[in-house]
């Protein structure tokens, strides 16, 4: 196949430069590409293939003259010059200038290809080739092909623009060329994916591509004859052409697929390792360099080349091969543990590989590298692949991916094996089991016990900094889901976030901060939660962690908005999260519950129907200690109440009492029971909440519900005391939801409390002035009043002055007085007290 892209490149570069240097290691198709190009030329193209005998200037010049003579048989002066040089009548340097006189005279414009130019000497090249480049003046254009050295010999010409370079990168096949080439080979890889995989494997190295396609497979298998052919080719043609020092360095440095100068130094012991990497890169020796500004350069070997070099090294120096992999494992263990596992296994040290996994699995799984961890675990040979700790870790990976059934089966096998071995014989395995339980246990009691065990390990076990920080996060993460100790969950997640940030674990810091925002919101610290969300610039989208934490920051915002009665925001955010999907026990599922709460309070029939559909996408079983059945039922009960179906609401509420450790659900259920007149059930619900579980909004809701019960029983003093306690916390955290969508008892209680002597008159007035966004009546104000008049009317029942009302509403005193006069006129009264009394009598 003629490579049109490369052909056009050669045409352009040779037309604009006196010399084109085509320099790349063996196997890049230099000779084939130049041969195809010369056949397309209209000008004569002379070809000289240099050998190891052409190190003398005279010998090299003789070859150049002979090549030119073959394409210009009619130029007798050229043949004469060849004979004179062969007979010793003229020295090489004067002969060069004799040649130049011919070129600049009647000699036709000619291309001279010098192949394998690296086999000559620097002295011969300087004497013969450089003058031709400098003085050919476009009539003699040179194309010089070599595996090495020529760019150094032509440094001045390159700097002045007399020469240009076509390197290994430009000679490599592109993925598009590979697609076209593959189509010409029967049985070659078919389809985009296979061709792309071949390009990724070979990086377009022509000799490897051709051999792979000729063999009819995407890439020769490790034990195939084709693989051995490439290995021998690299050993003889590529490495064999290098000096011994560089060859040995490459065999050692290819131990790792990617490396830095520091790692190369650690592997090889050579202080010039970084410089040698640069030399390999500049020579096009299958090494790519990646560097961000102010960052350490990272190098990556082409995977096929590195693999063949490792095969050569393991055959020629097996002891050194194992030792280098052990060194690599030790250096990578705390930096790139998954890579370290491969090297430890390659060094015949499976016990060390298992230790690396046990010490780093939390970091990998929490950092969104569960797939990488799984691949590392899959590399272990028998019997190490049955180690209990390894099975537990793989079970956690399966759970992360949502395969709960397989995770439970694998975990059961591991626990059975651990029971047969005393803890002291497998201390690290038992430590692994304690943290693994936080992923694998779902029932409330078992998970609570696992949290306590893991929390104890944080202070008693000899953990690395990474293990400790990721362990702290995991215990905080699990504690938040249990809801049994909100303060501890917040403390642990805050500690994990700050510690991770200080230690440079950016991914963990972001995950912990996102979880902290929800923990603060769930813990009733809404103002802090809002601030934490604002400081969280972005949450890294860890696909593998999405099963657990997808949308966690959005859920925190939903929780804050719900308790602050920003119901339109709740609807908007839930719809966005729901649209992204999310399984039946995800944060999207929890958001669907809050959509039901919002829809019920908005009394919007279309939203209520939409919420009912959403509830069907919530789990019917407990997972990770989260009581999804209870959440599903409390959402359904709210929707039933909003539809006026009290009987259905009662049926949904009856099963919630079984779930004792969900304070939010209990207080919401208690409020529904109160509205339905079941006061005994109210106290049963609220009695299930322990003091430790009480957070701001559960406290506010519980106190208001109990105040309303007391008010309905005419226990006025108790009602006012409980309501004042509720308002004290509500006003501090901006908790509004319990005081909207009021029934008659709640509205009467709030109205009477205004004159009781409360500190929160403005808060109460704002609640009494509230209207449901869809326009349904929720305010006690007369319907004939305008929106602003209704708002001001709600303040008239308080003891607030006109000046205080104006300050609260951010209007002028004159505006308040003007609206006040309009209210009196519409109600047919003359005083503030008469206006309130007239409306009470009308009600």
Characterization of this structure:
The chain has 843 residues and is mainly α. Helix content is 65%, strand content 4%. The strands form two sheets. The protein has a five-stranded parallel β-sheet with strand order 2-3-4-1-5, with helices on both faces. The radius of gyration is 40 Å and the shape is elongated. The termini are far apart. The model is unreliable at 188-193 and 775-779 (pLDDT under 50).
Defining key terms:
843 residues, mainly alpha, 3-stranded antiparallel beta sheet, 46 helices
The helix-and-strand class reads: mainly alpha
Helix content: 55-70%
What is the percentage of strand-forming residues?
Answer: under 5%
Number of E-type strands: 8
Global morphology: elongated
Largest sheet composition? 5 strands, parallel
> How far apart lie the N and C ends?
93 Å
Give me the side-by-side strand order of the main sheet: 2-3-4-1-5
Indicate the radius of gyration in whole angstroms. 40 Å
Low-pLDDT segments: 188-193, 775-779
Number of helices: 46
